[in-house]
TrEMBL record:
This is Pimeloyl-ACP methyl ester carboxylesterase. SUPFAM superfamilies: alpha/beta-Hydrolases (SSF53474). Keywords: Membrane, Transmembrane, Transmembrane helix. It comes from the Bacteria. The chain crosses the membrane at residues 20-39. The lineage of its organism: Bacteria, Pseudomonadati, Pseudomonadota, Gammaproteobacteria, Cellvibrionales. Residues 5-188 form the AB hydrolase-1 domain. InterPro entries: AB_hydrolase_1 (IPR000073), AB_hydrolase_fold (IPR029058), Carboxylesterase_BioH (IPR050228).
Amino acid sequence: MGASVADVVDGLVAQLPANPVAVFGFSLGGYLAAALALAAPDRIERLFVCANSACALPTQEILQRQQLIHAIDRFGYRGLHDNKIAQMVAPENLSSSAIADCMKAMDQRLGVDNLIQQLRVTSERLDLQAALASLEIPITYCYGEQDKLVSESWVAALVKRNQWVRQCVIPGSGHMLPLEQPEKLARAIKSWLAPQ
């Protein structure tokens, strides 16, 4: 990962093929996918942003990230806590050990060094709404109905500003939409990929 979001996006642009492609991004990847589409609009055919609103992080979220980094530096990291899982998953899915186990395994694979770098690099984000409002490619913003990390008002405002943007809200899911409602998300992706 680069030293900034712009560095990450520059690296992604360098990897794009010459012909326009469909781009999907989940969570932080959704923000990066939106930034990528803005950086190289002629090389992006369509965009699917899952579980993200491409806006600046709230001050409270930035503060929590700084506190987490400080705590990890001081006390070490013991892995993804059940309280964090409860914040990211819809209440009706909390009893699924498969979801929690998968989230913990992903966290473990990422590792503490990558986690800290990701938190540092991606905390300072620009609000991309004004730029996305003029992007003329099919764009889908899809998120769980109970996703506390997505600003519904931000997505709704973008839908009003750009006729190319479609909003897809999936019930029975929080932030971990691919794990909580994989079949419903797959249908939304198939719809997005269908010829226009």
